[in-house]
Amino acid sequence: MKVEEIKSLFLTHKEHRLKHRYITNNHIAPLLNDLKEHIVIETIGTSVLKDDIEALKIGSGDKKILMWSQMHGNESTTTKALFDLINTLIDTSHLSYILEACTLYIIPILNPDGAKAYTRVNANSVDLNRDAQLLSQPESLVLKQAFEAFKPHFCYNLHGQRTIFSAGKTNKPATVSFLAPAQDKECTVTANRKVAMEVISVMNSTLQQVIPNQVGVYDDAFNLNCVGDTFQSKNVPTILFEAGHFHNDYGREYTRECIYISLLSSLDYIARHNVNGSAYKPYFEIPENEKCFLDIVIRNVNLGTDVAGNIGDVGVLFQECLIDGKIEFIPKIESIGNLDGLFGHKELNANRLQVFGTDGKPLKIEDENVFVIMNNEKISLLLE
């Protein structure tokens, strides 16, 4: 599929009832109610706090793809993209070949308690992506049972990543990142990893037309406690998706489109081809993620007396806070000193002046500052 067609399909089928970062079972309930006339929807388990975990089944093909999102409750961008994708597949007749070749089994919110509380962990404060071996949590068991019952040929492990990540050691944010997880300590490039790498290579090729040099891959260090590594070790090609940052897109709406492009281009490829891993090598051309970004960097700050040795930078990261049902971004001082190796999604220049908090005191690490005082001027650090 051409990227222009995919972008047009996104605009037509975007699920406008889902937006920004806070997505819970309450938000998707009316969508599921509307979709039940078109696809199979079933409750496959409950969370720690007894909230339902839903799954959607669409398609009738032999190639089976298991997808799950919001394993980490505060990583919702991929959930939005999944509903955009479902809207597209049930409403676009010329894409019927995908549903004839593939069967999709989709868990849109695996961790509904974490989604409601907007936390990474579940209600027992457990990271479900480190529970693949212990299987100590009900949500982990739900995913394991879905995996064993559905017997997928591909797994899509859908996540979100912080604004700190870059695509290589560059000033390009990693708007989308992928990984074909390792399945042994040696990180052997196995046959099924090659299959995952081939699909990732196709998605990267498509994304380079949209977000050039803004795609990364994660370090593939092996950890069998992670779900992706566990499923890969069971010889099922598994792909980690990470929805990251695009310039000024803190609501992750443009990133949502990029994830949609990734999903649809991958399904088109899988439906049309016998994916055997032979075209895996371009995967290794994708740069590895680095942590090269802060949300704001204030450059050339006088950190004491006005001499060269006391001129440095102040780095700010936003804390994502759930306030009255909305996600607010609260600026917090992350680092002070020489930040030459880091980039700010927004940069300010103090021109060798001192910078103070609204209390008139010098900035300190861990301070939360909505405003700073620079040259007797009050400057907002909030998103515009």
UniProtKB/TrEMBL annotation:
Xref: InterPro entries: Peptidase_M14
GO cellular component, one term: extracellular space
GO MF term list: metallocarboxypeptidase activity; zinc ion binding
Reported cofactor(s): Zn(2+)
PROSITE patterns, alphabetized: PEPTIDASE_M14
Domain named Peptidase M14: residues: 14-270
Alphabetical GO biological process terms: proteolysis
Keyword Transport: no
Family indicated by similarity: Belongs to the peptidase M14 family.
UniProt name for this protein: Peptidase M14
Organism: Snuella sedimenti
